[in-house]
Amino acid sequence: MFIDKLIESIKAKKSPVVVGLDPRIEKTPQFIKDVAFKRKGENIEGISEALYLFNKGIIDAVYDIVPAVKIQVAFYEAYGIEGFKAFFKTAEYAKSLGLMVIADVKRGDIQEVAKMYSKAYLQNQLFDAITVNPYMGEDTIMPYVEDAIKYNKGIFALVKTSNKGSKDIQDIKTTKGEYVYQSVARMINRISNSAIGKYGYSSIGAVVGATYPEEAKVLRKEMPNCFFLVPGYGAQGGTVEDIMDCFDENGFGAIINSSRSVIYAYQTPYWKDVYSEYEYAQAARAEVILMTGMINNGLVKRKYIAC
Amino acid sequence: MFIDKLIESIKAKKSPVVVGLDPRIEKTPQFIKDVAFKRKGENIEGISEALYLFNKGIIDAVYDIVPAVKIQVAFYEAYGIEGFKAFFKTAEYAKSLGLMVIADVKRGDIQEVAKMYSKAYLQNQLFDAITVNPYMGEDTIMPYVEDAIKYNKGIFALVKTSNKGSKDIQDIKTTKGEYVYQSVARMINRISNSAIGKYGYSSIGAVVGATYPEEAKVLRKEMPNCFFLVPGYGAQGGTVEDIMDCFDENGFGAIINSSRSVIYAYQTPYWKDVYSEYEYAQAARAEVILMTGMINNGLVKRKYIAC
Fold first, then answer.
1. Cβ pair B188, B159 in contact under 8 A
2. Parallel, antiparallel, or unpaired for β A100-107 and B226-230?
3. Residue B236 above 90 pLDDT?
4. What's the gap in Å between the CA of A187 and the closest CA on chain B?
5. Whether B52 contacts B82, CB under 8 Å
6. Mean pLDDT in chain B?
7. Cβ-based contacts of B169 with chain A (< 8 Å)
8. CA–CA separation, B304 vs B307, rounded Å?
9. What pLDDT, on the 0 to 100 scale, is given for residue B46?
10. pLDDT > 70 fraction of chain B, expressed in percent and rounded
11. Which of B136, B139, B183 sits opposite A172 (nearest CB)?
């Protein structure tokens, strides 16, 4: 079952950190672009190759210390066919090193269409889980839930997202005296009952932004079944203290994604004097170790986990 | 400007009908599969070729009588790289015959990611417009709006969708005494002010399901700037009477999509004794002509347009 495997991997790696593979060609080290462009030409193929090679370096550097990677499909989809090739190759490489792979696709559509998205990602052995958008309602989520159960996969439904604009729709106050994201949360938590694993969590989880700690605290109580995929840590502004309430009292219940802060760690003030661009992958590893240490330290302070 | 071009095309073709290219391999005529499988093998490549050949037949049969086609990406995305090739080839072929192409992708994500989706579709000359999901808020829509203005493209944001489950989130009552979809509508209508064309409509439109005529009537008034892309007609249950309130008093304001009822018209009770599967494209043309006639007749009855 997806969620049991995820929890066991978090335990084994002693880390709830997920590395987000959101590569941008303009931030890719020149030496990687040189190799890729020489191999495939200075074109879409070369760009896609560079993104893949960049990812491969990151994966090699972190596969033994994180349970999963999250691949944001848009960074590949932007380059069409060649981009998708890099997306699939990245997933394949991550899986080959034992990582769980979350395809961050945020798809959502009517049932007949959702079935096709589910075929694309949940029925694809390269991916362990996907993110989905709940705006169109429960019937549009069910095809993913059915496939999650059938193929031992997971889904994370958007509940309260990390961006500023998440207030526009998600924070609308309803006549039930709650916010829209709480209504979504209740719907997802109810659906998640159908896929609960041996540790009490469901393979149907939720996306809850690191940037809204108060909301996360409420949601942790209102969605007891649901593991949280937490974006927004690091570059988007979320801190260790902000994410603590995403966890339960045993230190589970959340995986914390960081993309830019990890994969471009070598460009940050903290690491730029230590690592050159040639060492971008070591910098990413150092940042993951730092981030994991800080999060685990936060959990120890809360007495959620032992030292 | 996208919306002006769309309106002029509706006038020129005398039809607000959009054909949805949502091909399913299991419903594809055998003679097409035979050709495709012989050419590419009985595999993903062959399936994708069959979907493309099927679409090509439909496009050849309807390009002179409809302003646009809507291509639902999931039906291609399900087949990975090869599927995407068929998706792009379909768009290219439709454009080559002067059709406007709406990529029904329903993407939605934080700004940095939305920019990449916009690069994938709005910055791609194959597509004239895309559908987007507003759940994550205004800041996640703006990258599409900026590109729509810059590249003369359009967007249709989900407001009230055609499926039954659309009630779950979209119909939540808010403390303002309205429904969530009305809050979304207000947000989109406000955003749409930045892209109004010479006929008074904006290149920023809305998806409003044919299956909810009462809601559409309200939304037509609350979103005066916004053209509606109306799914749900035909196979999903929407009738001519259901969609009339999507139009304004001049007979504009909406394009009506039909997918299954058109592309598989030859299998419907109405046409199956007239057309064989070899004539699936003629059947699609006949259905489009019938549908256009019925809609235009409805508009005449309302005195929105002259005979």
1. yes
2. unpaired
3. no
4. 8
5. no
6. 97
7. 134-137, 180, 183-184, 187
8. 10
9. 98
10. 100
11. B183
Residue B281: strand, helix, or coil = helix
Does A78 lie at the interface with B, CB-CB under 8 angstroms?
yes
- Which pair of structure tokens corresponds to residue A164? 């500023």
The arithmetic mean of pLDDT across residues B48-58, rounded, is 98
pLDDT score of B235: 76
- Taking CB atoms and an 8 Å limit, are A108 and B110 in contact across chains? no
Fold of A2-301: TIM Barrel (3.20.20)
Q: How far apart are CA A164 and CA A212, in angstroms?
A: 10
Q: Which is nearest to B10 in space by CA: B254, B240, B233?
A: B254
Residue A235's closest chain B neighbor by CA? B112
Q: In this model, does residue A115 exceed pLDDT 90?
A: yes
Q: Determine the residue among B52, B115, B169 to mutate to test chain A binding: the one whose Cβ has the most chain A Cβ atoms within 10 Å.
A: B169
CA A35 to chain centre: 29
How many CA atoms does the CB half-sphere of B302 hold within 13 Å? 21
Q: pLDDT tens digits, residue range A52-96?
A: 999 999 999 999 999 999 999 999 999 999 999 999 999 999 999
ipTM: 0.97
Nearest by Cα to A131 from A20, A266, A221: A20
Name the class of domain B2-23+30-301: alpha beta
CB A16 within 8 A of CB A297: no
Cα separation, B236 vs B72, in Å, equals: 15
Q: Percentage of chain A with pLDDT > 90?
A: 97
The tokens describing B30, both together, are 């055998």
Q: Do A174 and B169 touch (CB under 8 A)?
A: no
Picking from B77, B114, B174, the nearest residue to A116 by CB comes out as B77
Q: What ranges in B28-122 are assigned the alpha helix state H?
A: 30-40, 44-62, 74-77, 80-96, 111-121
> A10-19, A229-238, B144-153 — which is least confidently predicted?
A229-238
What is the enclosing helix (H) or strand (E) of B185? Answer: helix B180-192
- Round to whole Å and give the CA distance between A21 and A36: 18
Contact across the interface for B124 and A80, Cβ inside 8 Å: yes
Please give the single-letter amino acid code of residue A277.
E
- What are the catalytic residues of A? 106
DSSP state of A267: G
B106 is annotated as an active-site residue = yes
B78 touches chain A (CB under 8 A): yes
pLDDT in tens, A164-200: 999 999 999 999 999 999 999 999 999 999 999 999 9
Tell me, yes or no, if B126 comes closer than 8 A to chain A by beta carbon: no
- Alpha-carbon torsion, ordered B209, B210, B211, B214, to 10 deg: 90
Put simply, whether B27 touches A (Cβ < 8 Å) is no
Nearest residue on chain B to A260, alpha-carbon basis? B112
Task: Express each pLDDT in A199-218 by its tens digit.
Answer: 999 999 999 999 999 999 99
Instruction: Give the pLDDT score at B53.
Output: 98
Q: Is B106 on the interface with A (CB under 8 A)?
A: yes
- Kindly determine whether residue A77 and residue B120, on different chains, have CB atoms separated by under 8 Å: yes
Q: Is B229's Cβ below 8 Å from some Cβ in A?
A: no
